[in-house]
């Protein structure tokens, strides 16, 4: 019998492949992305990570499964460390000020996505784990595909570090732990619940596509 994670993967791969073709992602890889668009992405991603950590923390505080709780605390701590030690310094390198960081507002598509994930977490911890995993897993998948596709141009791209971060052994290992914890939490679910989780995962993949498209359109005002 297939694991839940295998079924989620099958449902999401077509959407992830579309994301790997996204104009914004391709421009990052070949180095042609406008710096202002990247700044806008980094600010929105900062907002996203802040709320993402909040959802992890909420799930940690509301689960009765010790193994799941241990994982969620670790995931929240590692994501917070990434935000503070990697994301913020990279924003500072781009000239993004503390004032911009403190006053940035979430783009509507991003806010809708984050609200959906929080709503799913409130419905059930396993729903929240599924929703949040999609983001983490999709970044690893997309970064790997695009790195292979643009390997000659990527090394000279000013955005190469983004791809290195999401193809690193540490990041891939963290994703494997996440996948394992989801399969652990889903071991006794019904076929109907399994289908619901597949729908959640697929919907989050569609939200992810919308997130990338924010930056192809007009660069949002960060303040």
TrEMBL record:
Task: Please give a single GO biological process term from the UniProt record.
Answer: thiamine diphosphate biosynthetic process
Q: Which UniProt keywords apply?
A: Thiamine biosynthesis
Checking InterPro entries in the record gives: Haem_Oase-like_multi-hlx (IPR016084), Thiaminase-2/PQQC (IPR004305), Thiamine_Salvage_TenA (IPR050967)
User: Which EC class is this protein assigned?
Assistant: hydrolase
What Gene Ontology cellular-component terms does the record carry? cytosol
Q: Which reaction does it catalyse?
A: 4-amino-5-aminomethyl-2-methylpyrimidine + H2O = 4-amino-5-hydroxymethyl-2-methylpyrimidine + NH4(+); thiamine + H2O = 5-(2-hydroxyethyl)-4-methylthiazole + 4-amino-5-hydroxymethyl-2-methylpyrimidine + H(+)
Domain Thiaminase-2/PQQC positions: 11-213
Q: What Pfam families does the annotation carry?
A: TENA_THI-4 (PF03070)
Query: EC number(s) per UniProt?
Result: 3.5.99.2
Q: In which pathway does it act?
A: Cofactor biosynthesis; thiamine diphosphate biosynthesis
Statement: the UniProt record of this protein carries the keyword Chloroplast: no
The GO terms describing molecular function are:
thiaminase activity
How is the subunit organization of this protein annotated in UniProt?
A: Homotetramer.
Q: Which family does it belong to?
A: Belongs to the TenA family.
What is the protein name for this chain? Answer: Aminopyrimidine aminohydrolase
């Amino acid at each position: 019998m297939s694991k839940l994670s295998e079924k989620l993967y099958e449902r999401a791969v077509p959407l992830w492949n579309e994301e790997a073709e996204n104009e914004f992602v391709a421009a990052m890889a070949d180095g042609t992305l406008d710096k202002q668009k990247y700044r806008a992405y980094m600010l929105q991603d900062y907002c996203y990570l802040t709320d993402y950590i909040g959802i992890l923390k909420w799930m940690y505080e509301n689960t009765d499964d010790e193994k799941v709780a241990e994982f969620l605390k670790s995931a929240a701590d590692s994501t917070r460390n990434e935000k503070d030690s990697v994301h913020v310094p990279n924003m500072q390198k781009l000239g993004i000020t503390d004032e911009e960081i403190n006053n940035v507002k979430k783009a509507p598509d991003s806010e809708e996505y984050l609200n959906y994930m929080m709503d799913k977490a409130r419905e059930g911890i396993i729903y929240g784990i599924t929703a949040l995993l999609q983001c983490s897993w999709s970044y690893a998948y997309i970064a790997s595909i695009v790195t292979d596709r643009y390997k000659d141009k990527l090394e000279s791209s000013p955005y190469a570090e983004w791809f290195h971060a999401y193809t690193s052994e540490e990041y891939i290992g963290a994703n494997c732990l996440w996948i394992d914890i989801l399969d652990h939490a889903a071991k006794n679910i019904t076929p109907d619940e399994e289908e619901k989780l597949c729908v959640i995962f697929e919907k989050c993949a569609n939200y992810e596509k919308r997130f990338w498209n924010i930056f192809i359109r007009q660069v949002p005002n960060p303040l």
